[in-house]
Amino acid sequence: MKHGFRISRPNRSNRAWTGDTHSPVKVKARQTLSQRKIMVSVIWERHGVLLVDVMQRGITINVEAYCQTQRKLLRAIQNKRRSMLTKGIVLLRDNARPHTARQTRDLLDSFGWEVFDRPPYKS
After folding, report:
1. Which of 8, 37, 56, 89 pairs as cysteine with 113 (C-beta 3.0–4.6 A)?
2. pTM to 2 decimals?
3. Lowest mean pLDDT: which of 2-6, 78-82, 93-97?
4. DSSP state letters, the chain
5. Contacts of 54 (CB under 8 A, 6+ apart)
6. In terms of C-beta distances under 8 Å and separation of at least 24 residues, what long-range contacts does 111-114 make, across chains too?
7. Burial 47-58 (b: 16+ CB within 10 A, else e)
8. DSSP string spanning 87-112?
9. Which residues pair with 114 in a beta bridge?
């Protein structure tokens, strides 16, 4: 399934009868753009989910949105797993291109978090 699309499955009323066989002909599923697409960031650690951040429709991940999510994560850690702050935090990012803007680096440095980026995928 392509990103941003959903598959509609046909129901029984969408089938056509040919008359020469005993079973109706199946209609192929249609792909339509999803109008309800939202972005959700889920951040977890070994004990469970720390933060579920649902972004407003139409907002993309940019410097401001990324930093805002990191601030929410800091508050979630302070509320749920305060002991993590004294042990040190290592932020492990996925294979997506990391946010390397100066504002992002400065924010994470101010938190005292170590950032561990995975090496790029090589085939």
Report:
1. 89
2. 0.62
3. 2-6
4. --TTEEEEPP-GGG-B--SSSSSPBPPPPEEEE-S----EEEEEETTEEEEEEEPPTT----HHHHHHHHHHHHHHHHHH-THHHHH--EEE--SSPP---HHHHHHHHHHT-EEEPPPPP--
5. 38, 39, 40
6. 111/70, 111/74, 112/88, 113/88, 113/89, 114/88, 114/89, 114/90
7. eeebbebeeeee
8. H--EEE--SSPP---HHHHHHHHHHT
9. 90
Q: How many residues does the chain have?
A: 123
Task: Determine contact, residues 41/28, Cβ cutoff 8 Å.
Answer: no
Residue (of 82, 51, 44, 88) closest to 68 by Cα position: 51
Sequence-distant (≥ 6) Cβ neighbours of residue 69 within 8 angstroms:
41, 43, 51, 53
- pLDDT tens by residue, 4-33: 545 555 555 555 555 555 655 566 666 665
